[in-house]
Amino acid sequence: MGAGSILFKPYIVQAGPGPHLFDFAYATGEDGNPFRSDIAVGPDGVSISDTQGVDRFAIHVRWNVEGFGFLFLRADHGGEYYQLPSSGRLTLNLNYELALSWVERNRRRYATFRKEGWIASRELKAYLDVSEGYFDETQKVSAEEARAQLAPKALRYALLASDYLEIEKADYDIRRNGVRPEFLFGCDTRGFFKMERELFLDRFTELFNYATITFYLIGDITDFEPEEGNKRYTERDAVLRELLKRDITVEGRPLFWTHAWVTPEWLKAKSYGEALAYLQQHVKEVVGHYGNDLAVWEVVNELHDWANELELNHEQTIELTRIACEVARDTNPDAKLLINTCCPFAEYIQEGKWHERNAKYPQRSPHQFIAQLLDARVDFDIIGVQKYFTKRPIAASVEIIESFAEFGKEVHLAEVGCPSRGITQEFIDEEDYDPSLAPYEWLRHWDETLQADWLEAIFSFAYSKPWITAANWYDFVDPIGFLKNGGLMRSLEGERKVAFERLRQLRERWGKLPARFEIDRNPGPHKQ
Asked: Disulfide-capable partner of 173 in 115, 181, 464, 494 (CB 3.0 to 4.6 Å)?
């Protein structure tokens, strides 16, 4: 383990006003999991000198690639990773390291896909050739300034190619695999309480065969248990009846979630033992109330050191999850049980935060949490992975979702979303500045067609993977969504956005494919 440091020096060659390098970065090990380090973004660049015992690592920085977007990008020295020097400071050209990492990433991915019979389109080959050409030119110059001028061009086309690689491969796999009649296209149903109900149901059933009903104790459009013991079933029973009439498969979510947004004071005041006793009674009552009308239950949500108002340690989160799953299974053996996760890149580990609070215990990534649950033989059926647009390329989103395949369980993309204008933000009523003055996040500033393009990429990837059995868009209608401007309809009057029509077209196209395969989820080493 080296005692020196590395400085990743950025060369600002972009033409626009910026910003070009965000003031937060994080590091991951070879396994892809973040670890808490002393990485920092300063006037000279991105520095790191303490990796907490991790020998080989990658860094992740948000860098403005003009012509592609202002996104978090991984630099891993072309897949070889970085190691701290034994002493002194090693200075690396950040522009070049990013280009090297993404050009090499595409080479590896392209070779893997070719072995499966896939052939790149002419457009993709052009992007790959251009990125390789510019990258070759970086090898012919020795001056760092000159290399820094060429590297962004290689990076831009490598990133464009990386997205095309994943999108084209997903389309190839979909056509090869054939129609998937059991695939669940889902969405939340909170619009039922705000829209004219028949209009909501008409629009909902145009797109979806799967629905989620929320059971947030507080903080919902209609709270479920604002006072302990006062469970409000009436509203949820009403929407459930209408969905079942229309042959919609329904999931209840979540049975336990302790984010600051949804945790009432009466629950915060409980000791761990008291909370566990409450949860056992709560799960038994609520799951029992619905019997087989709800096909899936999300048992816990975001319990991997992110949403933790009760300040549970690792052992308590695992025990609580195990007991909640046991009670749910005993109450209704026919229901599938889902463990939901968020923030799949787990950058919160570097921040040391439970949402906005300082974390009291070392933190885990969602991937590490699922592995611990399986090692503890917790009995559940489905892994939920949330995939909002979180300022990453399509390629990075695909890879982080793929990391869950090794567990050998069904995966639901439990929440999927991006905006149709503005910037990606949560629960914000008004924009406090003009987004067009800042670098765009992905390809261009958000509009309805770009939202539809991103939706198509993520849903296509999901449909192409037999181990992903559902994808849920969040949310259905503006302005009551989690992400501002993230709905599929513009207003409560039911005006369809471009993304609404795009998803309908995808379902029609895929529904016409021949059936060609049986699902094989290829269980990984954690199969129980």
From this structure: 464
Sequence-ordered strand ranges (E) for 361-409: 382-388
Distances (CA, A) of 97 to 193, 424, 482: 50, 27, 36
Return the closest-CA partner of residue 100 out of 135, 147, 134. Answer: 135
Structure tokens at 295: 């096909």
pTM comes to 0.95
The residues with which 340 forms a beta bridge, in sequence order, are 301, 384
Cα of first residue to Cα of last residue in the chain, in angstroms, is 37
What is the token pair recorded at 154? 């290689």
For helices 272-290 and 314-331, give the axis angle rounded to 10 degrees. 30
| Dihedral angle sign, alpha carbons of residues 302, 307, 311, 314 | positive
Q: What is the pLDDT tens value at each position of the chain, 528 positions in all?
A: 788 999 999 999 999 999 999 999 999 999 999 999 999 999 999 999 999 999 999 999 999 999 999 999 999 999 999 999 999 999 999 999 999 999 999 999 999 999 999 999 999 999 999 999 999 999 999 999 999 999 999 999 999 999 999 999 999 999 999 999 999 999 999 999 999 999 999 999 999 999 999 999 999 889 999 999 999 999 999 999 999 999 999 999 999 999 999 999 999 999 999 999 999 999 999 999 999 999 999 999 999 988 899 999 999 999 999 999 999 999 999 999 999 999 999 999 999 988 888 999 999 999 999 999 999 999 999 999 999 999 999 999 999 999 999 999 999 999 999 999 987 665 455 556 677 788 999 999 999 999 999 999 999 999 999 999 999 999 999 998 888 899 999 999 999 999 999 999 999 999 999 987 544 444 455 544
Question: Residue type at 207?
Answer: L
Residue that has been written with the tokens 């991951």 in this structure? 28
Placement of tokens 């340690």 in the chain: 313
Q: Any idea which fold 179-511 has?
A: TIM Barrel (3.20.20)
All structural domains of the chain with their residue ranges:
5-99, 102-175, 179-511
The residues, ordered by sequence, that sit 6+ positions from 141 with a Cβ below 8 Å of its Cβ are: 147, 150
